[in-house]
Amino acid sequence: MIFETHAHYEDERFDEDRDELLSSMHEHGIGTIVNVGASLDSVKKSISLASQYDFIYAAAGVHPSDISCLDEAAYSWLQEQVKHPKVVAVGEIGLDYYWDKEESIQKKQRSWFRKQLELAEKTGLPVIIHSRDAAEDTLAIMKEAYAKHITGVIHCFSYSAQLAEEYVRMGFYIGVGGVVTFKNAKKLKEVVSRIPLERILLETDCPYMAPEPYRGKRNSSLYLPYVVQKIAEIKGVSEQEVADITQQNAKSMYRL
Fold first, then answer.
1. Which of 20, 99, 149, 178 has the most CB atoms in a 10 Å sphere around its CB?
2. 102: burial class by Cβ within 10 Å (0-12, 13-18, 19+)?
3. Closest CA to 82 of 129, 143, 37, 113
4. d(Cα 130, Cα 154) in Å, to the nearest integer?
C-alpha cells in the first residue's frame, strides 16, 4: 500500500466528490493519508477529516502565506489542536518569498516559522516544511531545529541535490510528488537519484501538482503510482520496493 504524506482534501475542489474519492483509496492501493492544514480553517477541517476516516491523519500548522491570521490568540488555539490524537505533525509551516518580497513580511514569516517549530519541540511531533525561493533562510532555521532534535520533511522539494543531501545528513526526509514526472524536472530527478530511497516520502500536495499525464488537472492520491513508477525508474528498483520503503519511511517519521 502507498502512504500519501501530504494532501489537502479539505480543499473546495473536492467538495463534489470528496467522500466517494476517499472511500475508493484502499481499493486503489492507497493505505494511509496525512491531510495537511495550512491555515486555521484548514487545520480545523483536516482534523475533522481525520476524525471521520480511520486511515486519514492530520497535520496542524499555518503556511507562511497565511500568517496574517496569526496572533497570540490564534497561536494558543493552534497549540491545543496539535494535542489532538490524530494530529501527527506540525505543518505546513516555513518560508515563501516568491510572492512576499518585502523584508518586513519576510521577517514576520521567519518569526512565526520559529514559533511554530517550538510546537514541534514541545510535542515531539515532526514538521512539514514549505520553502519557496527561501533556500538560505530555511536552511539556517532548520539547522536550529536540528540542534533541538526536531525531525520532519522538506515538502515539495525544489532546490539542488547538494542541498537535499545536506538535509538528509541532518536526518530530514525529502518530499517527492508529481513534479518528478515532468519532462523538465531535471533538478528533482537528480535529487532522487542522489539521496537514499530511505529518505524519500511520497506526496501529492493535491489538488495541486498532478503528475504526467494529468498535469494541469486536479490531483489526487490515486495518481501516486505515477510518482512511484518514475522514482523506481530513476533508482533502478522495483515499484513495489519504492512503495514499501517509502511507506516505512512515512510510518517512522509520523510514528505510526
1. 178
2. exposed
3. 37
4. 7
